[in-house]
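Sharing a chain and its predicted structure for anyone who wants a worked example. Both blocks are below, sequence first, tokens second.
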Amino acid sequence: MKMEGLNVGILKISEHFVRDVQRGWVSLSVPDNKAISIHGLGGWIVGDGNWTFNEETFIAYVESLIAELNPKFENMFAYTEKIINGVRIGESGMVQFYKERSPIHSIFFPEKINGQSLNLFCKTSDDFHLVRVNVFPDATIRLSRLENPLELTMSEFENLIREGVVVSEIPLHTNISIYGLGSFKALEVQYVNSVQDTTA
């Protein structure tokens, strides 16, 4: 089988990862009437799930992303990077987020600013999106897990919280999208951390 020009039959990604997907340790969906727990945010009972991948298509998709970022599949543990608005933002193999302090600071050894991350929801029209909030020491914030990630100042982020656009608590029976994975409705809340606790 081929997907986006890759031969899925000869996987170049970690066999450990492939086994984790095949044995269900890496979950690609949440069955209806079962719980989803989102780290640091809360837990909900899922309904009307609409999920994008099965095992085979997910493995192929991950391989296609790796091939795009690292065509030679070298140093897979090291890091991934993207350039957004001229600033290099990345994630190390230890899941440490960073961005360059200045895109012109140094071509060869750019200084990196480590960041912290947390999960929240972002409201768009009638839907909510699960977003990852990356917070950097220079008081800038990046909302990722969106088709078009947002770069914000701290005051802009605080305004979104005050306006109820960025939240931790969601109304039941509203649609929640996880970019690239699918969507579901939250039928019942099991527990939730308030946005004030989450961002403290």
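Comments welcome. Residues 1-11 have pLDDT under 50 and may be disordered.
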